[in-house]
Automatic annotation (TrEMBL):
<feature type="transmembrane region" description="Helical">
    <location>
        <begin position="109"/>
        <end position="130"/>
    </location>
</feature>
<keyword id="KW-1133">Transmembrane helix</keyword>
<keyword id="KW-1003">Cell membrane</keyword>
<keyword id="KW-0472">Membrane</keyword>
<feature type="transmembrane region" description="Helical">
    <location>
        <begin position="76"/>
        <end position="94"/>
    </location>
</feature>
<dbReference type="Pfam" id="PF02537">
    <property type="entry name" value="CRCB"/>
</dbReference>
<dbReference type="GO" id="GO:0005886">
    <property type="term" value="C:plasma membrane"/>
</dbReference>
<dbReference type="GO" id="GO:0062054">
    <property type="term" value="F:fluoride channel activity"/>
</dbReference>
<dbReference type="GO" id="GO:0046872">
    <property type="term" value="F:metal ion binding"/>
</dbReference>
<keyword id="KW-0812">Transmembrane</keyword>
<feature type="binding site">
    <location>
        <position position="87"/>
    </location>
    <ligand>
        <name>Na(+)</name>
    </ligand>
</feature>
<protein>
    <recommendedName>
        <fullName>Fluoride-specific ion channel FluC</fullName>
    </recommendedName>
</protein>
<dbReference type="InterPro" id="IPR003691">
    <property type="entry name" value="FluC"/>
</dbReference>
<keyword id="KW-0915">Sodium</keyword>
<comment type="similarity">
    <text>Belongs to the fluoride channel Fluc/FEX (TC 1.A.43) family.</text>
</comment>
<keyword id="KW-0407">Ion channel</keyword>
<feature type="transmembrane region" description="Helical">
    <location>
        <begin position="42"/>
        <end position="64"/>
    </location>
</feature>
Amino acid sequence: MCELLQNVTLFSVLAIAIGAVPGALSRYYLTEFCKRAIGTNFPYGTFIINFTGCLLMGFFFTLFKGIKGFPPEIDLLVRTGFLGAYTTFSTYGYDTLTLWRNGKQGATIFYWAGSAMLAVIGIVLGSYLAKGIVG
């Protein structure tokens, strides 16, 4: 375990931490906004966050990979820190079970399958958008 940590720099740890704070806050505020604006009978916030998180993951992965000499710490800040705190897979699982237990089987299936499909679509779309920038 100690050998694995030898390559971890303080700068890398700080990059992840600095990215995680705005990621978590963005998740919280977007979830609250969706509850107030759209309602609470479906987990709209988590649904939107998981799609946009996947879109951003695909976009930034492709963008960063396409830039020679791109600093790995920025990648850690954005993809591990921000997006790691922003996306909500555990909440997705919880919300799926809650919908099911509340007798909303149709909404459960839509949410469960729709989230998975939008995740893949988001990754592909984000990658496509970044390729337009880096070629």
